[in-house]
Every structure is written in C-alpha cells, then in structure tokens.
Amino acid sequence: MMPMENPLLIIKDLHVSYKTDDGVIYAINGLDLVLNKGETLGLVGETGAGKTTTALSILKLLPERIGSIDSGTIQFHDERLDNAPEAKMRLIRGSQISMIFQDPMTCLNPVLTIGDQIAEVLESHCPPGTKAAEIQRKVDEIMTMVGLPPDRKEEYPHQFSGGMKQRVDIAIALACEPELLLADEPTTALDVTIQAQVLDLMRGLKDKLGTSMLLITHDLGVVAETCDRVAIIYAGEIIETGEVDDIFYLEDHHPYTKGLFGSIPSMNEKMKRLNPIAGLMPDPSIKYVGCPFADRCPHKMAICETQKPQPVVTNGHMIKCHLFSSKPAGDNK
Amino acid sequence: MFKFILKRLLLMIPVIIGISFVIFAIVSLTPGDPAQLILGADADPVLLQAKREEFGLNDNFFMRYIKYITGVFRGDFGKSYRTGLPVLGELLLRLPHTTIIALGGIGLSVVVGVPLGMISAIKQYSFIDYFARTLALLLTAIPVFWLGLLMLLFFVLKLRWFPATGTGSWRNYVLPVVALAASATATQTRTTRSAMLEAIRQDYVRTARAKGISEPKIMFKHVLKNSILPVITIAGMNVGVQMGGTVVIENVFNIPGMGNMLINSVRVKDIPMIVSTIIMVAFFIGVMNLIVDIIYTFVDPRLKTQYVTVKKKKDQPLIPAQEKI
Ligand SMILES: Nc1ncnc2c1ncn2[C@@H]1O[C@H](COP(=O)(O)OP(=O)(O)OP(=O)(O)O)[C@@H](O)[C@H]1O
Ligand SMILES: [Mg+2]
Known about the structure:
The structure holds two protein chains of two kinds. Chain A is of the alpha/beta class. Chain A has eleven helices and twelve strands. In chain A, strands 6-7-8-3-9-10-12-11 form an eight-stranded mixed beta sheet, sandwiched between helices. Chain A has a four-stranded antiparallel beta sheet with strand order 2-1-4-5, covered by helices on one side. Chain B is globular and about 85 Å long. The two termini of chain B are 42 Å apart. The site of adenosine-5'-triphosphate has 16 residues of chain A, from β1, β2 and α1.
C-alpha cells in the first residue's frame, strides 16, 4: 500500500452546482478527497452521486454556463486548480491530468482519423519544434502499447469496434504519460472479456508509467482487483474511505456502504455488483440538513435529521456517520 | 466515385423528362393561343392559321411533346416562337448572366453567412450574436423584389454608385447579387450557428478540451468540420431558391438573363423557350446538388463508404495488449 504522506491531489470541502433552466442542482456538497502519488483510488457510488461531476471539476470541464465550482479547493501538487485560469488548465489537461470518459462511443470525433486524434494531444503538449515524424513515431508506439495495429491510424472512429474505441480513448489519455488519470467507468460500455482486457491494460500501463488513478466504477470486483483505496460517494460527499482491505474486511461501515456491499465482507463472485438499496437519494435541488442518507438508513437516529455527521477516522479508515461519532469507530463491537 | 457520378447524371434524365412534360402540358393545355398572342388580337385568320402550322400547334399534344423531347436529347431545343431563332443559342447567350447572379448570390451568402454564424455560435449570447440573429431575421423577412427596388432607388438613383441597367461591367452585377444573397445569407447564418452550437455540445468537444487543445483549434478543427455538413446542405438547397430569385431580380435590374427571358416568353406562350429554360434550370440545380453530394463525401468519412469502394484491408486481430507492455 502507498504511504499516506504523499498526496498528489487534495480536494477540500468542494461544492459544485449545475444551474439549469429548472433550477439549481447541488451535485457536490462538501466533498473531501485525497489521492496519493502512484495510488489507485476507487470512487464508488450509485448513479447520480456526483462521480463524473467530481472528475470534471478536477479538470474544470464542467459544462459552460451551467456547471460551476461554488466553493472549496482542489490542489494538485502545490497548485490550486479550482481558481486556475483557463490558459493554465489547458497546459495541465491531457499532459499532467487526463480523463477517460464514461461513454467511449461518443468521445471520438467522427470526422478525424484515429491517428490524428492521438497525435493532437501530443502536438498540444510537446515542446515547439518537435518534428511531425517524431510525433507519428510516438503515435505508433502508443497505439502498439494499447494493442491497436498502428497501420490503422488513418481510419476513422466508425471503422473501429467499441472495444477498440475504448483503447483509443485510453491511448489519448495516456499519450503524454500523465501523473493523474481520471477514469470514469472505463469499462462499463464493454462486454466482460474486453472489460478484463482493458483493465489489465490500464493496470499494466499504470505500473509502467507510475500514473495515479481515480477509478470511477460500479463494479466491486474491479475495485477489489485494481484499487489501493476506496472512497464511497453519496449525494455529493464522501461518506467512507479506506484501504481496500478496510472496506472489504473490517466490521465497521457506514450503513450506506453496508447496503451497497450487501453480504460483504464475505465477498463472493455473485456479489460483485452493488446492491440496490430501497429509497432514493435526496433531491439534489434541495440543500439538505443533517445526514443525506438519513431517510434510507435502517439505523436512523434523531440527530441524523438535524446535524451533519463529522468524519471519524480510525487508522486511515474514515466514516461519516453519527453511529460512530459518539464512540471511536473501532469500539463498535 | 466515377460510377456514382455517372449514375446520378443518368438519373437526371427521367427527372428532366418529368419536369419538361409537366411544364409542356401546363403551357400547352391552358387557354391562350401562342399564334394569336404573337400576331395580336386582330390578326388575319389566314396568317394565324399559317403561324399555327409553322409552330406545329395543329398536331396532337402528345405528338408535339414527343417531337420536342426527342429533339432535346439530340441537342435541338427547337425554335423560339417569338424570335424564330434557335432556342439553344438564345439560352446559352443568357445563361452566363443568370449563372453569375445565382452563383454570386450563393457565394456571397456563404462568405458572409458562414463566418457570421460561426462567430455567433462561438460567442453565444454576446452582442454580436444578437446582432447576427436580428440581421438574419430581418433579411428573411424582406422580399427580394422590394429589397432590389430599394437598392435601386438608393444606390443607383440617389448615390449613383452603380449603373442602373446593362451588363457591361462587374458593377452591374453587384446590386442584383447582394439583393439576391440577402435571404440566403440569413438561412446560411442561422444554419451555421445552430450546427456549430449542436457540435459544441458533443462529447468529442469535451474530449478535445480534456486533451488541452487550444480553443481556436477546437472550433476550427473539431466543431467546424462537424457542422459543415448542414451548412453545405443549405448552400445546395439555396441554389434552387436563388434560381427562382433570379427571375425576379433580373427583371428589377433589367438584366438579360434566363429569368428575364422566361417572363417575356411566358407572356407570349413561347412554349419551346419556356420548357427549355425550365430544363436548363432543372439541369443546373441537379448538377449543383450532385456537387454538394460529392463534397459531402470529402467532409464526412462515414458517407464516403457509400459511394467509394474503400480498398479492403484484411481484418487484423488486435494484438493482445498485455504482452506488449
Ligand atoms: N449537465 C448537467 N446539468 C444539470 N444537472 C446535471 C448535469 N450533469 C449532472 N447533473 C446532476 O448532477 C448530479 C451528479 O451527476 P453525475 O453525472 O456526477 O453522477 P454520476 O455519479 O457520474 O452518475 P452515473 O453513475 O450515472 O454516471 C446528478 O443529480 C445529475 O442529475
Ligand atoms: Mg457518471
């Protein structure tokens, strides 16, 4: 496991909202997250929890005029990203931080060749005066690395299969050997065998390039195999984080995590998917008081409705729940 | 590609036959005798009868049509009732004027409308966006003949910047082209704007931003290339609209083009002239549409495969990724 004292990305008390025609959607509500160098952090949560929004906030790619960071800080190395000017973000995007998007099918430009779309990211970040031949050589190299035949670089996205497009997305994301990779459900659109291939590929590349990764996923099997640490996100905040073993094998959990993982910690093949939990997330257009999970929680107490739980940390395992606020989390039994 | 072009050209034949038949039928079967119209209301009946015989008007309608259309496919468009001269020569004399005005109008509408629409989309909700949208609305609302007359009054009669009539120099064409381009510019602006806005919202633009590509490059390379298809479509459709507009504008500015001649021919029911002009216009529009379709295949690689037989590459299996690392 990675030492905790080497943070690459620190998000503190992040608030993000979308201002739509129908009103304001509070997507991220006080999210705290730390990602260490060389680490893979799994970000797990049900749909609409704010996983994609978190990743987009880091790159400041929230939809223009609609999405905005309202408060909080995002620190990458020693630099603040949340208030960085666009020109600086442009230099960081694709070279130091890159993203694999949730839907690989629509992420490639239909009228540009695959090779061109990979070359483009290299061109934007390589030192001026780099020769075209040098870039083409790199394109070939990166295509080979992700398992695509380089002689197909003159082809267009519609001539590629879904799995191949996913590989192109990965190639684009990794072309400049970024320090941080934001992978938003990189395998959900793929069938199981390709999924395994792509994950193997990403793991291998990560080991080779030393990239840190924020891996957004629904798949607990993927989490168990790929991640060093896990963060559980609910209604725009992290309600539990810990090392993979903490999440899978410790007794103490946030009731939401327990619900999600079902019969965990005895993780067997049948329970790879997240468990559905009765009820819905709170309406994101209303700023809630108290614990966002209160309405669905089997252990609801009076305090849950009125007061926000504070994080309780035991040996690096953080839980944000009133059940653990009163006593140290380890003493629960 | 060659096969595709040939096929499309051959397909134009039934279209031309259809159009010419309908027009021929309309002008022949509606009341009004060309001989009478040409010789005048109180013409000598003997002369009238001779004229009718000369034009072949005494024959059966279908016989006349078949005679005419077979002539057309041999390159003989008949003789004008009005002048007695071969129709083709007359048409070819007038075609350049109309072509200049119509293509000039299209060109101007593209040159002005596309950049305006682009800026409008890139700077959505800015002053220039509102300006462009208001201008577009205005230009669509103004009828072409009224705009032409207004320009004639102002630029020719008042300011005397341009000659009123004639075709001697390029200055004669400026006002007709501008007047004709007005409404086409409006549609072009609006189409470009909405196509760009549509493309900007696509996921691949976000991907491009995530790569750290500069904003101008994203707009010109990623967005424009994807929104160019509807822009070309509209330009192609405008060709038809422009050809209709030339009829009006040539009369306003008294330009001896096909539109001008068409009006004169309709007045005296000069059947070969009318039908031949229409055939020419239909052919012109058909060719322009063909050009548009060919341009499509260059812009959108997904369409190319429909027309061009891409040389087949043998399917290569993916290299197992793991071993390559
Ligand atoms: N462009 C947008 N406009 C308005 N609301 C949005 C927009 N994008 C996301 N949201 C809202 O923000 C909240 C978080 O969405 P987000 O896409 O981050 O969820 P997610 O965790 O990635 O879900 P999924 O697992 O389905 O991808 C949701 O309530 C969603 O409805
Ligand atoms: Mg998402």
